[in-house]
Amino acid sequence: MNGISCQPLLDRLTFALVKTGVISDLSKRKTELEKIKFCLGVEVTYSDVKINVQEEIQNLLDALYDKCEDHSKSEALAMKAKNQGSKAYLKKKDKEALNCFSESICLAPAESSVLPLALANRSAVLYQMRRYKEALQDMEWAEGACYPAALRHKLLVRRCRCYLSMGDIKKAREVLEACNNHIHLVPLEAKDKYETEVADLKQKIENHVPTSSTITSQENLQQPSLYGGENETVKYITNAFEMKENDKYGRHIVAVEDVMKGSEVFVEKPYAAILLPEHHKTHCHTCFSRLLTSFPCSGCRDAIFCNEECRRASRPWHQYECGILHILSSVGIAHLALRILLITGWKLHCYIREEVVEGKVAGFGEKGVYNGPDLIDRYRAVFHLLPHFNSCLLEDQLQYCLAAILLATAISDKTNFIKENMDENGEKTDLDVPHLASAVMRHIAQLVSNAHAITQLMPSDSGGHSRVEQIKQIRVASAIYPTASMMNHSCKPNIINSFYKDVLVIRTTEDIKPGDQVSNCYGPHYCRQTREERQEALKQQYFFTCKCEPCTQPKYMKSEASWSGFYCENCGGASSWMGNEDPGGCNTENNEGVLLCLQCHRVQRPSAHLVYTCSRVNSLHESGEEAIRKGNLPDAVSLLRNAIQIGSKVYLPENQYFLRVRDTLARALADSGDYENCTLELQECLQFMEQRYGPESIELAHEFLKYSEVLELAAAVNDKLQDELRMVKKRINDIFTLNYGPQWKIYLSTSAVK
Ligand SMILES: [Zn+2]
Ligand SMILES: [Zn+2]
Ligand SMILES: [Zn+2]
Ligand SMILES: [Zn+2]
């Protein structure tokens, strides 16, 4: 990318201010503005080097400004990329040609003659790839970008072919007529070929046999709608919920009606959201859809969009970010904080900042509405999210200050934001670098604990453990959702988050009764992390001690303990391994762990016999895996069966390591075609997966996917299994739909779900 990162400077400045002790003065500054002004004025000498914060930041920015040219349009580079694309196209390398033309389209200046040609060329590749819809769109853009009249006939023929291939005969006829009307405009040398092509199309249209094929893509999916209609006072949530406030929980969401499991209860557009830099070249910068073909910003080569609509929607913020996106996006969450202000505008920010809100629940406006629908109501909700600045480590506070100064300076140097936001008299209000930076800081302090990660589904393999396709979630963007931010955390939430483009869609994962609090999981979940890990993570990022059910009730700690459980050598009850993280625990002789029995409460070192048995199981397991790799399946099955037999005397059946051994055996059985026995092993795994992760968990759904694939093969020779197979498929469908929404099907091609 740009080759210069901001983080090393921020780290170096922080290091110098910590070493010289100057950082402690930061904590004495009370307001954000005081902190920013303090940082701007700091000059220290460390290791005989004089360090002036403001100068250092300006120097870095100047170096970054020098790189701006690498992010602006270039006719010459656009031409080069287009020519490369044409070469690849002739060699029938469609994918490469597509990438080259896309690059050319991003590089070409808005008025350039290369742009319509690259678009038209890309449409030819797309037609070849049978992506007719995208091809048609490119041709439309090409025509809109002054495609040469002398070549227009080529696009007419291609458009007609696209509609014909899509089976849209009505449209194909319309274009055919346009083709006929165009004949007299076709250059002489191309006329013969053109007439043959048009005659051929005419024939094909007349002979066309209609088929009823339908395409399902993400666009065909509807954005979900709220269960029971939208709440009138708190926007984006169901009527069945309301917001309350008290000393114990602060602002929080409670149910006022019964809501069934699987209901859509929040459907919220973010106030602001930023695409993560690693997806800049592959995803729409407005709605975060993954793109096959990109529609570029007309001013820079960094921002791409789905179409004109998404490009237009980016105007409020991209008009300022255009050309300096590479600088702004190098400071992570601070960029989102700045984005909030660019969308809001300075005047509205000042208005809300000065507004008197006594007697109302924070975030509610004149009309008694929270978060919408007008910009002023939405920003008020954002502005009143709790900032957690003073709970952050002093080093972090300093880094946020420095990042805010860096961004505010770049905006001041390179954009009209400050000029445009002066008041009517032409005087600057209080808008300058320190004031802008302090406003950015306030939002950073809120985002630290209120920002949401937007995730997207992707197909994935399961890491060699099975051949079955799975779905994974990747993080594509960071966003702020002021209504969803009103939910408190629980390690055992009663809702789950999913995304439709940038829209947050929340479903209930259990039946909710009137009076129940609606709680979200901020990250640490009781099925996936131990109590200790969760408490630590929540303290660090969210500054509170969790008192949810799994964090306080002993029965949860008991089940947690069984993830690494052994039979107690004293009483035969369940004992838990307290040592290193490997649930295989006792495998290494020189480790430091002990076993704590939950029944007789004895704490003891594992006996030599236990250590020996574990290492036996471990080596049998490894040999079994090796045999699978070599294709020696009968040996693999017998080694792994042996491991299970020996292991079942010492490991609790729900021990995570022991379940992995069982899973490997299932794979060996499946590979050797013994589907019936394989299903038996997987049933065992399923039982304990459900026990640990719960009946609605993604982990269980993935295990069911494996099971269904084997079951399908077993059912082919044993008709009695058909009912079971149908039930399993339904179960998979239900769990994935609950967790991810209906769009999950696009990401799995396996027959298991069809
Ligand atoms: Zn888009
Ligand atoms: Zn741009
Ligand atoms: Zn908890
Ligand atoms: Zn015991």
List keywords for this structure.
binds zinc ion; methyltransferase; zinc ion binding; protein methyltransferase activity; 29 helices; Serine Threonine Protein Phosphatase 5, Tetratricopeptide repeat; 18 strands; globular; three-stranded antiparallel sheet; single chain; four-stranded antiparallel sheet; zinc; nucleus
**How many strands in all?**
18
Radius of gyration: 31 Å
Q: What is the annotated CATH architecture of the domain at 559-753? A: Alpha Horseshoe
- CATH homologous superfamily label of the domain at 559-753: Tetratricopeptide repeat domain
CATH class of the domain at 559-753: Mainly Alpha
β-strand amount: 5-15%
The largest β sheet comes out as: 4 strands, antiparallel
Largest sheet strand order: 15-16-17-18
Overall structural class, as computed from helix and strand content, comes to alpha+beta
The quaternary structure here is: single chain
Task: Give the N-to-C terminal Cα separation.
Answer: 42 Å
Query: What's the helix count?
Result: 29
Mean pLDDT: 89
Small molecules bound: zinc ion
What is the CATH topology of the domain at 559-753?
A: Serine Threonine Protein Phosphatase 5, Tetratricopeptide repeat
- Low-pLDDT parts are none
In helices, the fraction of residues equals 40-55%
Shape: globular
Subcellular location: Cytoplasm; Nucleus
Main location: cytoplasm
Catalytic activity: L-lysyl-[protein] + S-adenosyl-L-methionine = N(6)-methyl-L-lysyl-[protein] + S-adenosyl-L-homocysteine + H(+)
Keywords: Cytoplasm, Metal-binding, Methyltransferase, Nucleus, S-adenosyl-L-methionine, Transferase, Zinc, Zinc-finger
